[in-house]
Amino acid sequence: MSHVFPRHTKAKLPVASHGDGAYIVDSDGKRYLDACGGAAVSCLGHSDAAVTDAVRSQMDSIAFAHTGFFTSPPAEALAEKLIALAPGDLDRVYFVSGGSEAVEASLKLARQYFVEIGQPQRKHIIARWQSYHGNTLGALAAGGNRWRRAQFEPLLVDMAHIDPCFVYRGQEEGESEFDYGQRVANQLETEIQRLGVDSVAAFVAEPVVGATLGAVPAVEGYFKRIREICDQYGVLLILDEVMCGMGRTGTLFACDHDGVAPDILCIAKGLGAGYQPIGAMLCTGAIYDAIEQGSGLFQHGHTYIGHPAACAAGGAVLTRLIDDGLVERVTPLGEALHTRLEARFGQHPHVGDIRGRGLFRGLELVKDRETKTPFDPGHKLHAKVKQAAMNEGLMCYPMGGTLDGQRGDHILLAPPFILEDAQLDEITDKLDRAVTTALAQAGAA
Ligand code: PMP
C-alpha cells in the first residue's frame, strides 16, 4: 500500500522510472511522449545532462545556504542573466520555489510598495476571470477559475475580477478582434473607477492563459491598452508568466510578443524545467528602491528562497534556452505543430477551436461546433482524454469545461523544445486516437 497522498486519490498512476529526451519511461518500460511538459514545465525534456551536471556540481560545493545569512554565486549569476534579458525596467529578482510563491510574493510586494511610498489606501487587486495564478490562498483569490475557488471561497480575500481576453467566446458579431481586445481591456478602467481611482494597487494577468483556458493569447493591442490604463491610474501591472514564460511561446518572456513590460513579472515552471523547483519574481528598480529607501525589509519570505542548487539549475536552463538556441526552435516547431493539428482536427465536428502560440497550444472540445456549446461537464471528457492518451503513451493536459458557456473541455499541449519532427506526428496520431476513444466513451461520437 502506498503512503503517498496523490492529488487524485482514486487514480492508479504508473511509476515513473526514468527520462529519455522527450519521453518518460515507466517501471514496466512503457514510454510516454511528454507533450505537455507535465504542466508546461519540462521545456528541455527529461534527460538534459547540462542541467543535471550543473545541479550536481553545485551540490558538491554547497546545496543550501539560508538567504538570511548568505547570497550565493548561482543566485547572483542567474539574477544577472535574467535581468539582462528581461523587458523594460525590471531590475531585481526575488527567487522562490514555484509559481504560487512567485504570485504571492508579487501581490505582497505590490501592496508593500504603496505602503512604503505613502499611499496605504491602495489596497485593491484586480485580476481576471478564467485565469489561474496558483493554489495558495492569495494566488487562488487572484485566480478566476471558479471550480478551483468554489469550496475555498470563505477563506479567500476579496479581489476584483474582469473578463479575460478570450476571442473565441467573447468577440461579438461584427466586432473586429482589435475592437474586442480594446473593449475587454477597458473593463479594467471601469473597475478602477468603481473601486476608487487611488485605491487600486495592482492588476494581475497571464499574457497567454494556460491552465484554465488552454493556451489563449490576448488579441493584438490588448496588453498595450492594459499598460496605458495602469499607467494612467498609477496601478502596478503584474504579469504571471509562470506557465507561458521562459520561451514557451517563442520569445523568452511572453510579454515581449505584446511589446509591453510589466512592473512585476512572475516566472517558474520552465525556469527550472523540472530539474529543480524554482520560481522568481522580477520587479523594477523603482519598486526595489522604494523598499530599500523605506523600511529596508520586504516583509515576506520562505525558507528555500534563493536555493543554490535550484538557482544552478535555472542558470543552466537559461544557457540551454539562449546560448544553445533552443528558444529559437519554438516558433517554427510550434507552427509545424499547429499546422498538423489544423490538418487533423480543423474539420473535426467536436473541435471548436485550435489556438495558442509557440509550443503552447490548445484545442477546445465542444458538443456543437456551430453553437460552441460545451459538453456536459458530467461526462468528464477531459479526464477520459487524459486517460486514453496515457494508454496510447502520450501525456497531454486536458481540463474540464463549464456548462454556462464560459468554456468547453480543452486539451493543452506544451511539449519540450527539443522535439523532433517525427514526434509532431506521434503527438497528432496519438491525440487523435485518444480523442476518438474519449468521445466514444462519453457517448458523443
Ligand atoms: N500561475 C500560473 C499561470 C500557473 O499556470 C501556475 C501553475 N499551473 C501557477 C501560477 C502556480 O504555480 P505552482 O503550481 O508552481 O505553484
UniProtKB/TrEMBL annotation:
<dbReference type="InterPro" id="IPR015421">
    <property type="entry name" value="PyrdxlP-dep_Trfase_major"/>
</dbReference>
<comment type="similarity">
    <text>Belongs to the class-III pyridoxal-phosphate-dependent aminotransferase family.</text>
</comment>
<keyword id="KW-0663">Pyridoxal phosphate</keyword>
<dbReference type="InterPro" id="IPR015424">
    <property type="entry name" value="PyrdxlP-dep_Trfase"/>
</dbReference>
<dbReference type="GO" id="GO:0005829">
    <property type="term" value="C:cytosol"/>
</dbReference>
<keyword id="KW-0808">Transferase</keyword>
<dbReference type="InterPro" id="IPR015422">
    <property type="entry name" value="PyrdxlP-dep_Trfase_small"/>
</dbReference>
<dbReference type="InterPro" id="IPR005814">
    <property type="entry name" value="Aminotrans_3"/>
</dbReference>
<dbReference type="GO" id="GO:0030170">
    <property type="term" value="F:pyridoxal phosphate binding"/>
</dbReference>
<protein>
    <submittedName>
        <fullName>Aspartate aminotransferase family protein</fullName>
    </submittedName>
</protein>
<keyword id="KW-0032">Aminotransferase</keyword>
<dbReference type="GO" id="GO:0008483">
    <property type="term" value="F:transaminase activity"/>
</dbReference>
<dbReference type="Pfam" id="PF00202">
    <property type="entry name" value="Aminotran_3"/>
</dbReference>
<dbReference type="InterPro" id="IPR049704">
    <property type="entry name" value="Aminotrans_3_PPA_site"/>
</dbReference>
